[in-house]
Each structure stands twice: as structure tokens, then as C-alpha cells.
Specification:
It is a single chain. The chain has helices at about 10-25, 60-70, 105-115, 120-140, 155-160, 170-180, 185-190, 210-215, 225-240, 280-290, 290-300, 330-340, 385-405, 420-425, 445, 470-485, and strands spanning about 5-10, 25-30, 45, 50, 80-85, 85-90, 95-100, 220, 245, 250-255, 260-265, 270, 275, 305-315, 325, 350-355, 370-375, 410-420, 460. The chain contains 16 helices and 19 strands. About 35% of the residues lie in helices and about 20% in strands. By secondary structure, it is an alpha/beta fold. It folds into three domains: about 5-40 and about 60-70 and about 225-300 and about 445-485, FAD/NAD(P)-binding domain (3-Layer(bba) Sandwich), CATH 3.50.50; about 110-215, no CATH class; about 305-425, no CATH class. Strand 11 and strand 12 form a beta hairpin. The two termini are about 15 Å apart. The strands form five sheets. A seven-stranded mixed beta sheet has the order 7-6-15-16-17-14-18. Strands 9-2-1-13-19 form a five-stranded parallel beta sheet, covered by helices on one side. Strands 10-11-12 form a three-stranded antiparallel beta sheet, with no helix packed on it.
Length: about 475
């Protein structure tokens, strides 16, 4: 009899698990509380505009291609993407603009011409970033650090003997301050801590692995926008026999003799041989599994930041803006103190503007643009979010107007907002934290929840709240780890 695997959630980690395990011969059933797939990687279609709701930067597309290859399909028949020529455009309050070109010679020239940063500093930094990736990827990313049998592999031993090269004992900011001589370059590379919701003034320099993915390996954009990744993976999963049950919330897990035996959902009971949770692990323990001990154990770790997002339909085109844009806070350190210590939105926040219509013209009507405007926000611990949103919106508009020399409110014809409370309600993210635990400690990676249960031998976990972390590549890596566990 074919073993049945139930997957809670249809985020990219859950979808990848469904495809990989279906290819191994398992009968896979996906349970999703919403009426659409994707989790944080969703979309909004309103007022003639289309917005990606969550992740907007696409790196390591080969991990998505691999899912089609596992299924015996040609990825290009289902999914297309192209490398972007520029990863981001950076704006500073004093009028400095830095274009982060994918061509590193052009990028290094830009840093020298605009702020006087020597080209060799960039190359030295990115070479170091590659070293960290090469030492850690096969140990801390694509393998479980919680599985003892992986500790004595050659790659693991090599990483442990070169532990200092991973740079865990300096903060990201301390390391970047040594690599670069100009404050704006330091700030530019400090921001990569936000890719997993952390503070560069506390998080270990090991996180400098992230710039390697973006600058050495490249950034890409899917044809049709980020949500097309989800749509094509759902299509592939269905062709492989995966069954989806939308509007079907998992409410309870049944277990016996240290095994999960069934789940109770809004639409009935399902007996299973294996269960994989793609939910935030804290939400799983508080709402589904209801294990107070495990909930408290994970609760003691500091949570990652959240986000406040404005989806704006703009009745104009801004040629100065690119696909990805950053308008930096002037006092970057104070912004992170506000987020993690005071649990407030900073009065002068760093603003990220993502405009997919720059690449996908159909995402906005002719002569208009779809702006995804995001600022970092603290986790939800009961703050007055209505007051926060009002103040934050005013601060964001003021910064945009000042830096772009415009009056952006004149052009906003559609608006939708997403705050940490919404994120918690819509995606089951505990406290609205986007990445589960933060990485604001030297050994945060070891504190992330493992991809398997130590108590229940058929219970597994994928997604951004567990090892190895958040973001599309790491969520796909978590699915790969679980697939390897189920032979």
C-alpha cells in the first residue's frame, strides 16, 4: 500500500516537498487553509493592477528547475526566467545614487565613482562571501545540522576545521566595516541582514553568505512575476498526482506510540503515514499540535522582524526607479534599535520599492506602475498598529517625496496595506515574524527548529521558520532535507 503524506500549507517549501515525495512514489495530500496556494508568496489583483505580495528577489533559480527535473520534465516548458542586469538601485538622503549592476566590474566602478570605494574592496568582500558559502552550503544549508550522521561527513569536518573562516564571532556590521572604507558601502551590505529579518549590528558575519547569492550567482526574474513560481509548481504537482484541499484548515493532530496517525481538518479526518508542516513552527505548536513545552522552548528565542507593506497603484511612470529600489534611512543603527529593542517602526525608515511592471508590463495599466512599498516592522506584540500605520505612511511618503522630488500622494489611485497583524492572520506567521527566529546571535543557526521531530518519527517541518531559514532558496533547501529523510 502506498504511504500517504499529508502536508500542512502550500508555501513554496510545502509545494517542493509535495513534488519531491510524489516523485518518490508517495501519495501526497496538501491541506491549505486559504483558497489559494503560496503562503507568503501570494498575489493581489485589483484595480487593474497585479502585485506580488511577499518575496520579490529571486536567486538560485536552479533549485526550482531541479523540481521539474526530478519529475522528468523540461523546466523551460513550464517556467521561464531571465537574469536581471541590476540587482538594486540605492538612494541616499544626500542625493547619492548607487546602481548595483550585476556586472561586478561595472558595480565596482559605480562604488568608486559615486562614493570613492576602492574596487578591490568589493572583490575581496565577495570572494570572502563565496568562501563562506562554499564551506557552509553543503553542511548548514542543504543538510540537517541536527542529524548526527551528518556531523562526520567530510564536508562537515572541513567546515568545522575552518570555523573561523565562516566568520561567526564578528557581527555583520563589524565585518563589513573592515571590508569597506565608506559608510554608504557598509550600509549597502549591512542591509542583507534584513533578508532573514535580522539586525546587522547583532547578527553574525556568517550572514555575508547572502551577498554571494545576489552578486556572484546573480539575481533573476520569472516571466509573469514572482507568483508564477507558485502557479507553475502547483501545476507540476497536480500532474504528478498531488491532491490539494483548499479552504481546509488543519485543526488537530492525532498521535499514538510516538507516531502521527491522523489529522482533523475543517472538512474531516485524514489518516496519514507521514505529516509535514509548512506552517510557522510556533503556530503549529500553539494551534495544531498544542504542545506547551515545545511552544515555550521555541518562544524564548528572539523573533525576526516583520513588515509593513503598502501596495500602491501609481498613475504615473517613474523612469528613475528600477525593478528593486532602496531609499535608505540616514541613521541605520537607530532603525534596528527601534525594531528590536523598542518594538516600534522607526521615524525615518528605510523604504524598499519593488515595481514588477518594470519587467511585466501587464502588471499595471498603460502609463501606470504597481508599487510594492515595504518597510521593516517589529513583530506583533500588541502594539497600536493603526497608529503605527498612520505615522509610517506619512514617514514613507515624506521620504519618497524628498528623495524622488515628487508628491507621490497625487499619483496613488489604489492602495492596500499589509501589517504584522495581517501577516499573522493570513499566513499563520507567529507574531507576524517573517522568518521565525531572528539570527541576532552567534549560534542562532543552531537554535532554529530542526526539520524533523525528535519525539515523533513521522513528523517533519519545512519553510522559513525552521532550518535552514527564510527566503525562497532556504525554504527549498528545507524541502530537500525532508525529502532525503523519507527514502
Amino acid at each position: 500500500m502506498t504511504n500517504r503524506v499529508g502536508i500542512i500549507g502550500s508555501g513554496i517549501g510545502g509545494l517542493a516537498s509535495a513534488i519531491q515525495l510524489s516523485a518518490k512514489g508517495y501519495k501526497v495530500i496538501v491541506f491549505e487553509k486559504s483558497n489559494f496556494p503560496g503562503g507568503k508568496l501570494g498575489e493581489i489583483k485589483e484595480g487593474g493592477f497585479r502585485f506580488d505580495t511577499g518575496p520579490s528577489v529571486f536567486t538560485m533559480p536552479e533549485l526550482v528547475d531541479e523540481l521539474f527535473q526530478i519529475a522528468g520534465k523540461d523546466p523551460r516548458e513550464y517556467f521561464e526566467y531571465a537574469e536581471t542586469k541590476q540587482s538594486c538601485k540605492y538612494f541616499f538622503d544626500d542625493g547619492t545614487i548607487i546602481n548595483a549592476q550585476q556586472d561586478l566590474n561595472e558595480f565596482s566602478k559605480e562604488l568608486k565613482d559615486k562614493i570613492g570605494e576602492q574596487p578591490e574592496n568589493l572583490f575581496h568582500f565577495l570572494n570572502k562571501s563565496k568562501v563562506i558559502y562554499d564551506l557552509t552550503s553543503d553542511v548548514f544549508v542543504f543538510k540537517s545540522i541536527h542529524d548526527r550522521k551528518n556531523l562526520f561527513r567530510i564536508q562537515s569536518l572541513k567546515a568545522f576545521f575552518n570555523f573561523n573562516k565562516i566568520d561567526p564571532f564578528r557581527t555583520m556590521h563589524e565585518a563589513n566595516s573592515k571590508y569597506f572604507s565608506k559608510e554608504k558601502a557598509i550600509r549597502l551590505f549591512d542591509r542583507y541582514a534584513t533578508y532573514n529579518g535580522s539586525d546587522p549590528y547583532k547578527a553574525p558575519a556568517t550572514l555575508n553568505i547572502i551577498p554571494h547569492l545576489e552578486h556572484n550567482k546573480g539575481t533573476y526574474f520569472p516571466k509573469g512575476g514572482m507568483y508564477s513560481i507558485i502557479l507553475t509548481l502547483v501545476e507540476l504537482a497536480r500532474k504528478m498526482g498531488v491532491t490539494f484541499h483548499f479552504n481546509n484548515k488543519v485543526e488537530k493532530v492525532e498521535c499514538q506510540n510516538k507516531k502521527i496517525t491522523a489529522i482533523d481538518t475543517a472538512n474531516g479526518k485524514w489518516e496519514l503515514d507521514y505529516l509535514i508542516s509548512d506552517m510557522d513552527v510556533q503556530t503549529f505548536y500553539s494551534q495544531v499540535f498544542k504542545d506547551e513545552k515545545l511552544l515555550k522552548k521555541n518562544e524564548k528565542h528572539e523573533k525576526s522582524s516583520s513588515a509593513l507593506i503598502f501596495y500602491w497603484g501609481i498613475n504615473a511612470e517613474f523612469s528613475d526607479l528600477k525593478l528593486h529600489n532602496i531609499l535608505f534611512a540616514e541613521d541605520y543603527k537607530e532603525e534596528f534599535k527601534s525594531l528590536f529593542e523598542r518594538k516600534e517602526i522607526y521615524k525615518d525608515p528605510t523604504v524598499y520599492i519593488y515595481i514588477s511592471s518594470k519587467q511585466v508590463p501587464d502588471d499595471a495599466p498603460d502609463g501606470k506602475e504597481n508599487w510594492y512599498v515595504m518597510i521593516n516592522a517589529p513583530e506583533n506584540v500588541g502594539q497600536d498598529w493603526e497608529a503605527f500605520k498612520e505615522k509610517a505612511r506619512a514617514a514613507v511618503i515624506n521620504k519618497i517625496n524628498r528623495i524622488l522630488n515628487t508628491n507621490i500622494e497625487d499619483f496613488i489611485e489604489f492602495e492596500k496595506k499589509l501589517d504584522p497583524v495581517d501577516i499573522e492572520e493570513q499566513t499563520s506567521s507567529y507574531h507576524g515574524s517573517l522568518y521565525g527566529n531572528s539570527s541576532n546571535s552567534k549560534f542562532a543557526a543552531f537554535n532554529r527548529h530542526p526539520n524533523f521531530s525528535n519525539r515523533f518519527r513521522n513528523l517533519f517541518f519545512v519553510g522559513g521558520s525552521v532550518h535552514p531559514g527564510g527566503g525562497i532558496p532556504l525554504c527549498l533547501a528545507s524541502a530537500k532535507i525532508v525529502s532525503d529523510k523519507l527514502k
